[in-house]
Amino acid sequence: MAAKVLIVTGDAAESLEVLYPYQRLREEGYEVHIAAPTRKKLQFVVHDFEPGFDTYTEKPGYTWPADLAFAEVDATQYAALVIPGGRAPEYLRGDAELRKILKSFFDADKPVAQICHGPLLTAAIGELAGRRVTAYPALELDMQAAGATFQDSEAVVDGTLVSSRAWPDHPAWMREFLTVLRAKAPVT
User: Fold this and answer.
1) Tens digits of pLDDT across the chain (188 residues)
2) Is 117 considered catalytic here?
3) CATH of 4-184, one of 1.20.1250.20, 3.40.50.720, 3.40.50.880, 3.30.1450.10
4) Among positive and negative, which fits the CA dihedral 67, 33, 108, 98?
5) Which residue ranges make up each domain of the chain?
6) Angle CA(130)–CA(176)–CA(164) in degrees, nearest 5?
7) How many CB atoms are located within 10 Å of the residue 77 CB?
8) 181 close to 80: Cβ distance less than 8 angstroms
9) 3-state secondary structure 64-104
10) How far apart are alpha carbons 10 and 2 in whole angstroms?
11) Whole-number Å distance between alpha carbons of 178 and 176
12) Rounded CA gap, 80 and 161, in Å?
């Protein structure tokens, strides 16, 4: 049986940051499930960079069904966790069910991949203190406030935690995450 990987997300997640790891991990042979606050069709967004803008822009992205509601997740059934970015982590960090899920992955030292604004979730459960991470560069102060050492690079590996800045860094992020994941939970 293939090892399972859980992606936790919600509406307004960055399309590429959900669907790239979803497809890449399936290609690798992992079974991948997407969990959200409720089982429903999620509306993702596309964050892009436009000339003359001081920050990214947001456009409607793909829709995709959530396989599970957070309340239905049994974290013990999953070998690893992926936390995409976008705006979703801003409101998801307040979800008590999700915080329990996140905490269980860290307590069991399972591989966790986070990208862009995803580290707002790990900060919300106190798991960034003393760690080296990267995130969307505008979150540098948030990462420092959570006790992390921020590094502005494509991918940062700290034990079983692999973080990345944003979707342009996908190749480095997934390469590093798959190295950790294959060591901890190889496909059988």
Assistant:
1) 579 999 999 999 999 999 999 999 999 999 999 999 999 999 999 999 899 999 989 999 999 999 999 999 999 999 999 999 999 999 999 999 999 999 999 999 999 999 999 999 999 999 999 999 999 999 999 999 999 999 999 999 999 999 999 999 999 999 999 999 999 999 98
2) yes
3) 3.40.50.880
4) negative
5) 4-184
6) 60
7) 11
8) yes
9) EECCEEHHHCCHHHCCEEEECCECHHHHHCCCHHHHHHHHH
10) 25
11) 5
12) 10
| Structure-token match 């459960």, residue found | 125
Instruction: Pull the structure tokens for residue 111.
Output: 């591989």
User: And the tokens for 70?
Assistant: 């957070």
Q: What is the DSSP secondary-structure string of 139-155? A: GHHHHHHTTPEE--SSE
At 137, which amino acid appears? P
Q: Is the pTM of this model over 0.85?
A: yes
